[in-house]
Target: Alpha/beta fold hydrolase
Amino acid sequence: MTPIVFVHGFLGGSRQWQRQVEALQGYDVITLDLPGFGENAQRDAFCSISGFADWALNELKARDIETFHLVGHSMGGMVAQEMVARAPERVDRLVLYGTGSVGVLPGRFETIDTSKTRACADGPKVTARRIAATWFLEREKALEYELCATIAQKSNLKAMLSGLDAMHSWSGAENLPAIRTKTLIVWGDRDRTYPWSQTEQLWQSIPNANLAVIPNSAHATHLEKAELFNGILRDYLVA
Model:
């Protein structure tokens, strides 16, 4: 049975995947915490997407996990693209969810430079809760908002700035045509972080890509529309 590896996004963590872990009960599911975030918030975050990718590949190898399905969300989708570029033979199937290949995030609810400025001015806890709210259609009123805000608040200011710098300095657009792994692109049609242009670029540029658009959901589709998201994931990865 091929393990399924989940890589969270900026200010995320392994705990946000609990609904997916439950839906995939009986399968070998690995939910990573990137350095600087989630349960690894005490570790120094990398300032590059490639640094996160190398860490993830080495972490999986240390766990004796050689071949796996890979699900990357948001910044974790950038990390997943770099993991495939470095070790395509290790990734059986790829899911790029709520992500893109342009690290400056054109069309985001605010620019990365604005996020950095506001993080320094407001502090990490206020910033964590403010950004987490943008992931949901109903913002702070969303059922799963508090879970994500609590995870986001684990990261300190240095980790936040490192993560933002890592995204800002990265682009994977030129590598998309070289991805030969069977790939699924998943996008919530009300995403405030990655507009359709980013999703369309992935879908049209990766040779063996399929697309799933989940209606009436924002950046945290796996929580807002968990049953639908999990059904699509099971069908793609374990059917």
In short: The mean pLDDT is 97. The CA atoms of residues 13 and 33 lie 5 Å apart. The chain has one domain: 4-237.
